[in-house]
Structure formats: structure tokens, C-alpha cells
Amino acid sequence: MAAEPVFRRVLLKLSGEALLGDLDYGTDPARLEDVAAQVRTVRDRGVEIAIVVGAGNIYRGMTGAAEGMDRATADYMGMLATLLNALPLQDALEKTGVQTRVQSAIHVEEVAEPYIRRRADRHLEKGRVVIFAAGTGNPFFTTDTAAALRATEIRAEAILMAKNGVDGVYTADPRTDPTAELIPQITHMEAIRRELKVMDATALALCMENSMPIHVFDMNTDGNIDRIVCGEEVGTVVSP
């Protein structure tokens, strides 16, 4: 805990796949505990941290649309699925002693607060972790776009883009192309132009317009979040 953090407030984009662990489907309790422990380490440094969680481990709107379902309906189902990740993540964080609030872009008052920017800001200032669920609340937008939007709204200094088993941005998919090379640094525009799999183009464009840096890293390596927060070079940095 000797190193000083270089960020005051960050947003962690956590894919649903990052919560799979060794499972083929669903949420691994051991993985949740690991994520919670890493988030607590960062919080204990005095860094304010918000989280946008995906639902790829449960349901993808694009999958339903590809099977013939109305795209808007499929996307709404995906938004609800993010709540199925946000709630157990909140539980895991609070078991470590970290006060946590879930804010949903879709009104589900029985289980989560409605998303209100100023309320989220106050929670963060009080040292609470805020989990943003249900994406943007609109179909046709991914949780990547939700991460870019929420990070901009709460004035986060960086987005920490957690990947599952991939330690950064590559020239090609390293899982299928053995010649793929890691790109340590790249601009938003170059990532869009080369169609690299950082996040979707809408989210990348929003980050570029607001000069929001993105740190892409492997969530499966313990301590990566803390290393990034303390200024170490981990994975890929996408910046202006």
C-alpha cells in the first residue's frame, strides 16, 4: 500500500464474462469475491470507484436479435440481466465491508436506486462504490457505451476496461491468430480506424470527444486494478 494513486476517481467496466470464472454460464461466487477484494484494495487507497457491469455471462441482446427476436426487446432483456450481476457483486463488496449502491437506468425501486447523477456523485464522495446497472436504459446501446457515458457524467479520470483472459488490445484476436501483437498505446481515432476490439465504435467516439483515457487489461490477473490506479503500465492505454 506504499504507492500513491494517480487517479482520484475511476470507472471500472466489468464484462459479464469476467464473472464467469471456470463456469460455462452464470456467476462464479469465487470470482465475485476476487473482484470485490481487488475493488476494496483500490477503495482503501482513497480512490473513488464506480462500476458498469455487463451481462454476457447471462444474456446478450444481440444473441436474441440474431435468433429472430425484436432487437429492442432483446436489448431490454439484456439490461435486466445486468441487474443479475450487479446485485451479487454488491453483496460480495458489502461482505468485505465496502458500502455499495446499485443504481439502475431502468426503474426497479425494490432492488436498486434509480440512476441520478448527483446522487451517484454524493455516494462516491462518501467512499461508497456505485454499480451502474441496466446500461443506458435504452435499446441499441451497449454497456460499453453506458461505461463511456457514466464515466463522462461523473467526471471519472479514466475507464478501466476489464477483459476476460486478454491482457490488452492486440493487432488481431490473440486467441485465433498466433501472430497478433500487443499494442501498448494507441489513440481513440486509430482504434476506431483499425476497428480494434477495444469497445464499440459509439463508446470509443464518446470517449474521444471527452478525452477519456481507457486502460484495457486482463481482469484474471490479481492486482491489475491496483497497479493501474498506482500508475503502472498494464495492458493497453487508449488516449487522445
Structure, explained:
37% of the residues lie in helices and 19% in strands. The chain has 240 residues and is α/β, with parallel strands linked by helices. It has one domain (9-239): Acetylglutamate kinase-like (Carbamate kinase). The strands form two sheets. It has a nine-stranded mixed β-sheet, with helices on both faces. A two-stranded antiparallel ribbon has the order 7-8. The longest helix has 25 residues, at 71-95. It is globular and about 50 Å long. The relative contact order is 0.17.
Descriptors:
240 residues, alpha/beta, Carbamate kinase, nine-stranded mixed sheet, two-stranded antiparallel ribbon, 8 helices, 11 strands
Summarize the structure in short.
This protein is α/β, with parallel strands linked by helices and 240 residues long.
Number of domains: 1
Shape: globular
Q: What would you say the CATH architecture is?
A: 3-Layer(aba) Sandwich
How is the biggest beta sheet arranged? 9 strands, mixed
Order of helices and strands: EHEHHEEHEHEEEEHHEHE
The number of strands is 11
